[in-house]
């Protein structure tokens, strides 16, 4: 199980939003590339990067900054935010991104999703961002009309490599994970799943660890590691010690 540090970019800065609301922003740093290097030094195996400007505007806003992050760390990066056509997806792979996490495109254009999965096997994931079980798109501001449980079976058939499930109501709130929902989702799919939204402490990491046997491949944490309620290095060491035997 991998702990992904979240690096969310808005107006060129490292930020966190509360429940995905664009007007509830906390800035944690002015140099995203240096922040990426920081988490690499702390033992990060992957980085989870989100272009929030891109998510809200529907186009890649921070392309050059993301390229610089790829160049800065030497560790794999998965990216989401504003990737709504195949040309944009391809340009980010050329910039050095390892995996893409698609949201709006995945909800609105299944054919494009299928084509990308075929062209880039094991490199395309889907972001399932849900509020009370209802999937949101276009920067979490529009209701897709679907639920997570309805979409998961179709994603498997399209060749998606993994999914990222975010409970919007808990995102940035440090209130813990809804374990019952995570358990039910893992029962619904064979796709590897990464969960986000609400992680605040080592207790939350420990409570999620048993789900790795059902397909939980990682957790994303943002506000907790920036505020210090979760010691990222401790989390990495704890997981490493368990996997070492």
Description:
By secondary structure, the chain is α/β, with parallel strands linked by helices. It has a single domain, classed as Alpha-Beta Barrel (TIM Barrel). The protein has helices at 32-41, 52-57, 63-73, 86-95, 104-108, 110-119, 148-158, 179-188, 202-208, 223-227, 232-243, and strands spanning 2-10, 13-18, 21-29, 47-51, 77-80, 99-102, 124-131, 134-137, 142-147, 162-167, 193-196, 216-221. A hairpin with a 2-residue loop joins strand 2 (13-18) and strand 3. Helix 1 (32-41) runs parallel beside helix 3 (63-73).
Ordered list of secondary-structure elements with their pairings:
Elements: E1 2-10, E2 13-18, E3 21-29, H1 32-41, E4 47-51, H2 52-57, H3 63-73, E5 77-80, H4 86-95, E6 99-102, H5 104-108, H6 110-119, E7 124-131, E8 134-137, E9 142-147, H7 148-158, E10 162-167, H8 179-188, E11 193-196, H9 202-208, E12 216-221, H10 223-227, H11 232-243
Parallel strand pairs: 1-4, 1-12, 4-5, 5-6, 6-7, 7-10, 10-11, 11-12
Antiparallel strand pairs: 1-2, 2-3, 7-8, 8-9
